[in-house]
Amino acid sequence: MSERKIRILIVDDQSLIRTGIATLLARKPDIEVVGQAGNGAEALERVVALDPDVVLMDLMMPVLDGIEATRRLTAVGPRPAVIILTTFRDDEQVFRGLAAGARGYLLKDMDHKALADAVRTVAAGGALLHPEITAQLLPYLGRMAGEGHAAATPAPQPERLALLTERERSILAMLAQGRTNQEISDGLAISVGTVKNHISSILSKLDVRDRTQAALWARQHGLG
Question: Where are the domains of the chain?
């Protein structure tokens, strides 16, 4: 019996972009594009009809924009997971998207393999930011934490650093720099699978939800 594929809904007001993304993802044996929508209102209807696991959501669309559509979807429950897929890099849009409940924020110029990996990550319950976005936000979030505005960020716990191995500290520092799994793999001459295993261990030891929170923790403690 074949394993169930990850069901994807693509939401973008430009049909050419929707078709291009669908064509690329359709090549992945574990991913199935079940539908498309041209605006946020259509997306809400298609989610009910198609029951996707992951929604790739554009931001700027007519009728209902991606932020509000994301907010309405995530208010109902954790499924489907929403990934913002956009050209916007500015801090305000990123924060609005994450505040609305998106589990990923990716740029449209990213490699199709990385996009497929991101889909798999959020479908499995994880969260993911584009490395460029992570690097862009970390200094800003670090300043917020210093000013006492990051209530959602775990309180500093220096003793947790002692739980990490030297290799895990190295990987944590690279996460704080916004490095991808592949870049960490190349830099440390270890496999991507080994990197993923180390990151899972790091998240557990630091008691944080995802790699972005781990990166913030590392910045607060002088790593990266």
Answer: 6-129, 134-220
Helix (H) or strand (E) holding 50: helix 40-50
Q: What is the DSSP letter of 161?
A: G
**In the CATH scheme, what architecture does the domain 134-220 have?**
Orthogonal Bundle (1.10)
Which CATH superfamily, name and number, covers 6-129? Response regulator (3.40.50.2300)
Q: In the Cβ-directed half-sphere of 101, how many Cα atoms lie within 13 Å?
A: 18
Per-residue pLDDT tens digits for 126-148:
878 777 776 666 555 555 445 44
User: Helix axis angle, 166-176 relative to 192-206, nearest 10°?
Assistant: 90
Cα-flanking dihedrals φ and ψ of residue 37, to 5°? -145, 150
**Do 119 and 54 contact (CB within 8 A), yes or no?**
yes
How many angstroms separate the CA atoms of 162 and 207, rounded? 13
Strand partners, 83: 56, 104
